[in-house]
Amino acid sequence: MVVVILAQVFYRYALNNALPWPEEASRFLMMWSTGLMAPTAFRRGGFVAIDMIIRLLPRMVATGLSVFLMGVTILVLWIALGIGWSEVTGIGGRFETDSLRVPVSLDLVTWMKVPKSWMMASMLVGVALLLLVAVELALRNLYALVRGPEGLRDIPDTVMLGSGAE
Amino acid sequence: MLSFFLPLFLVFLMLGLPVVFGLLAAPAILLWLNGQERDIVLLYRNVYEGMNSFPLMAIPFFMLAGELMNRGGISARIVGFAQAMVGHFRGGLAQVNVVDSMLFAGISGSAVADVSALGSIIIPQMEKKGYPKPFAAAITAASAIIGPIIPPSGIMIIYAYVMGESVAALFLAGIVPGVLIGIALMITIKLMANRYNLPEAMPRANWGEAARAGGAAFWPLMTPVLLMGGILSGVFTPTEAAAVAVGYSFFISIFVLRTLTWRDLPGVLTRAGITSSVVMLLVGAAMAFKTVAALAHTPELLASTLLSITENPLLLLLLVNLLLFIVGMFLDAGPAIIILGPILGPIFVSLGVDPVHFAVVMVVNLTVGLLTPPMGLVLFATSAVSGLRVETISRAVLPFLLVEFLVILLITYIPAISLTLPRLAGFVD
Amino acid sequence: QEIMLRATANSNEQDEDYDGLVVFKNYVENASNGAIGVEIFMGTQLCGKGDECLAGVADGTIDIYISTSGGAAGLFPYIQVLDLPYLMSDDRVAEEVLTGTDFTAKLRAMALADSGDTIRLMTIGNTGGWRNYANTKGRIAAPADLAGLKMRTVPADLPQTLATTLGASPTPIPWPELFTSLQTGVVEGTANGITDIMSMKFTDAGIKYLTLDGHSYMGAFWWMGNNRFKSLTPEQQQIVVDGFAALQQATFASPKRKEIQAYADFRAAGGEIYVPTAEEKAAFKAAVDPVFEWFKGNVKGGPEVLDAFTAAVAEAEAAVAADRAAELN
Ligand code: NA
Ligand code: NA
User: Fold this and answer.
1) Which of B42-46, B403-407, C10-14 has the lowest mean pLDDT?
2) In sequence order, what E strands does C136-263 have?
3) How many angstroms is it from C174 CA to the middle of ligand 1?
4) Most confident of A7-16, B247-256, B370-379, C213-222
5) I need a labelling partner for C215 at 20 to 30 A (CA). Which of B221, B278, B322, C102 fits?
6) pLDDT band (50, 70, 90) for residue C229
7) Confidence tier at A15 by pLDDT (50, 70, 90)
């Protein structure tokens, strides 16, 4: 992404020849990097939540509450998965991107415009992976509810980060 | 019926659902109860399109630049330089803590990054010199919020994106208010130092030491000069400036200062990628939330409620400061701006408040909100860095919070504080 | 109200689009005696870009939406035909093309076919008059004056090709970044209607020279979900299409009224307005010839639509000439 945008600045400023595609290409990469990294962020505890009430409750009740919250999360992601699928395969996905092309013949003579569905798939994949993570976290909670927290292996590299824009 | 999405969201939030899912679950459930299942698609689509924006890309870039600078001892150099500058004042290390945040703010766009980069260095140092740990943590948190007020700033980018303002103008407008908060905190420390007998100052750095410390921090401290210079002279746009910042910090960390090795890169990229993905999703979810607010005609309702109380801009600004302070307790600055900016901004602009001035009032207020529980990201980050409980830090931070609230009032009622720099650069008439 | 139509435009309440929508709402609600309501959402509250909004039109979450040709070109590339330069001479001809010929019907049929019968083109109005060249550097009186000028363009192919053909350096800048980019010199010029230039206060960003070459008509494409439209009774359908006819007239008239103030403001802000002579216009027209070849060769459905359009323009010119003759009699 960085290289693409630096190329854009260089071409425009140094060569006085602006390229049409870097803007869209870097957005493409940003969407995919979000889709692929968000599940890891979620797994490592990077999604901000208030844990005050949960910490005040007795352990059994607290675990029960987090199972309920996981249920809400899974429901949200499950519905998003269905919508995401119809979005990628629907009208919106059939739009051409403005400026992205890929070669469709080996001799690089024929190029085609990339459809928006290639970009929209980033969120679908992200949602699918988030759903997997949510199911894993829910199962861990259930396990802890039934058998106690012992015997669960910790998730590595747990982070304590808010939304970094702040 | 639909307007219950707001209380439902708060319930989810207090119960401990991650903000992102709360922003989506609450409106979706109400749409469903209201027989508008079809409109749930709008939520999904707005998450996607909310993230899919070129100007927003500056946020992950500034984060990556911050990570690169952070990784290899650059934070230590900045602390060293701040020590040479103000270490000899009474309450020296506390003053250093404020100044390092002001310097770091020119490199980083995020208060949370400030806490994790500087807090881990300066809190132990202060503790060793005999400062109470809660005090050390509190001043770290209170000064960290300067990060997104002095440019670059993730929150300003979000504001400009949502409100169609110029990022460059907002960046310029944040400089003086950011410095002002820093000075106010330093004065507070000075007063406290005398009253509470804070630890002795360190010996004054001589010119040679000061020059050495300045030299060590020189290249990182040039970042804001490069950024604002490049933007104002038209070499690059603010978004491109963020990419330039990444290139610059990469270059000086690897080749000039050699504080970063190639082997560190995957780790740096992963960390930046994780934090950015969280911000991006949050922005997307807030955009979706806003869509349902529009369907429920919440903006019109809130606007007319506000205007029915009073039409005096001065009183309204006070009311809005209170509103933002309360909102800041429950929402992070980014989502709060996305949801409230388009509602509040036009009211004040139509009453004659300059849009850039209002932006600064809103941004500073919500940034200070990062210090207030229950949803105080900077408190969370400081707690993680210091090992103290959030409750302890939030009590210790109270005096500084009060000072910052007074500064907010100053910024609110003296537009020149925010507007002078953008006016000189020709962004505001 | 039994039926509530949800209409959205990505502009604000000062825009021609809003004037059109208000007229539409008023007509439809009155003519249906309240049976059909229209709910207007301005700005990006529901959706922010052409592809996103048209996806909403297709699946019924949005009933009515206005896009420029750029906003819909990703799915219907041939509608960029309206962006081809110097094809129509003035408002009277353009309005005759859009009301008196079957050109809109032709586009409607193509768009329905390409969207699987989901997106229906209701009418084509205007949003912002005509596209002119505005820049920060100097007067543009001949194609050579554009040489090397950093012109802001949307990233779509046709505007890029047009700028390159004229020797300018096309620079894609997102609309929200345009003000700052003009101010700092990242770009030096832009092609917009006068009302957009003044509502964005581009004069404050250094725009000083405006050349009224009117290279393209700023068509506003009004779309409606076809399933939604078909779900109405024939009587209701007629009310809706009549509403769109009223809307079209309103959007024809509104920019003409609004630009008076905008031009005055532009001059007051120190701007220079230049009207090219007939010879200068002819020189511009000759210079853009390659764009037409490019359009025919590279745009799906290009030759077919261009033929239909030039035929419609010829027909409209004849009709306007006849009208004029009658009026001058
Ligand atoms: Na600090
Ligand atoms: Na900053």
Assistant:
1) C10-14
2) 150-153, 169-172, 189-192, 209-225
3) 36
4) C213-222
5) C102
6) very high
7) low
Alpha carbon distance B165, C186 (integer Å)? 17
Q: Half-sphere exposure (CA, 13 Å, Cβ side) for B20?
A: 27
Domain ranges of chain A: 1-147
Instruction: Provide the chain B residues 130-169 that lie in CB contact (below 8 A) with chain A.
Output: 148, 154-155, 157-158
pTM here is 0.84
User: B169: CA distance to ligand 1 center in Å?
Assistant: 26
Here the ipTM equals: 0.83
Contact B168 C184 (CB under 8 A): yes
Task: Please state, in angstroms and rounded to a whole number, the distance separating the CA atoms of residues B78 and B107.
Answer: 11
Per-residue pLDDT tens for C273-284? 999 998 998 999
From ligand 1's centre to the CA of B417, what distance in Å? 23
Q: Which residues are bridge partners to C220 per DSSP?
A: C125
Distant-in-sequence, close-in-space partners of C44: CB < 8 Å, separation ≥ 6: C10
Please give the structure tokens belonging to residue B224: 């804001």
Comparing C-alpha atoms, which of B423, B3, B340, A137 is closest to residue C204? B423
Cβ neighbours of C180 in B, within 8 Å = 166-169, 231, 237-238
Instruction: Compare CB distances from C184 to B49, B233, B294 and report the shortest one's residue.
Output: B233
Q: How much is the pLDDT for A161?
A: 44
Check CB contact under 8 Å for C177 and B238.
yes
What is the C-alpha to C-alpha distance for residues B368 and B185, in angstroms, rounded to an integer? 13
* Cis amide bond preceding B152, omega within 30: yes
Mutate to test the interface with A, among B277, B370, B379, B380 (most CBs of A within 10 A): B277
**Which amino acid is located at B214 in the chain?**
G
